[in-house]
Design goal:
The chain has helices at residues 4-25, 30-38, 41-48. By secondary structure, the protein is mainly alpha-helical. Helix 1 (4-25) packs antiparallel against helix 2. The radius of gyration is 12 Å and the shape is elongated. It starts with a helix and ends with a helix. The relative contact order is 0.18. The mean pLDDT is 82.
Length: 49
């Protein structure tokens, strides 16, 4: 069984991959994606876990 911290770290890495994929497609402005990335993701992920 994974600890909560491990799960949060995994989800954070998954978010990074998704943001990178969106940047490659170029449909969403880079600035918008950077804002999403900078937003307090720990808070969001803790709610999800």
């Amino acid at each position: 069984m994974k600890t909560r911290e491990e799960r949060i770290k995994e989800l954070s890495q998954e978010m990074d991959r998704m943001i990178a994929a969106l940047k490659e497609r170029g449909r969403i402005p880079r600035e918008t994606l950077d804002k999403i990335k900078k937003r307090n993701r720990t808070e969001v992920l803790e709610k999800a876990v």
